[in-house]
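I am still learning, so would you mind making up any protein sequence you like and the tokens describing how it folds?
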Amino acid sequence: MKKLLPIVCNAAALIFFLATANAQEADQDLHEGDIQPWRVGAEIFVNSVLFEADFGDLGGGPFVTDDPGVDVNIQAGAFTPGNWLRYQPVGQLLFWDGTQWTDGVPNGERIEITDVLSNVTSFSTDGVSETAGVIGEADSNGSVHEHLSFVIFDASNAPNGSAGAYRIQLKLFESLPQSDLSVSIAATPIAIVFNRGLETDSYELAVSAADGLDNNAVFVAETGVLTIQRVEALGTVYKVKMQSIGNNQFQLVEAEEVTDAQ
């Protein structure tokens, strides 16, 4: 028995080492910057609500990118093997004009996503297509790791886009195969802000301003402009822009009526 003890101990040490290595390897598989969802019950959670991407990255060229990827955090909560992880487009395409986020683009730009089934989802300033895309099928571990294709087009329907930042929103959900009925869903959408030809500082300013869009109000310190997405007055809803005049005071400089479609 004494001779067997070192062997048993060594085997136990080896199992512990392999388990630790596998856990570390699983952690390393979650790529920084990727969308990392997980599921608990019928709710999907995500590592962030705002992600960055660059149409000028080396992989895609000036008008195409496959980032951010989607990489399920199975340690936090796996999906049901065989089910589809999907996305629903939300809202409309927004453009950063250097000082504020707006629903106007310089040259009819739109962003299209091609999913794993080659279906195309389109985002424009007029809204989004009704097509819900498929990110991927959960494997036997309940994991999905995919990189979809994002392309920016201009009014001529060619891959192209004016310099600036562009923002889209998606809501993740899980469905049975070949079904649009959700079995789990994220409570809130995620946003992706794409850089199209901006210098880093200018792009990060756009990202910072985008971080506050869903909170209704955005203040850009560099310009002193406060944008409030929805203000109701006398039964009408407005998007207002105010300029800081010092001493924590603001002056109204623009008010645009917001329709229900917006």
Notes: The two ends are 78 Å apart (CA to CA). Residues 1-26 have pLDDT under 50 and may be disordered.
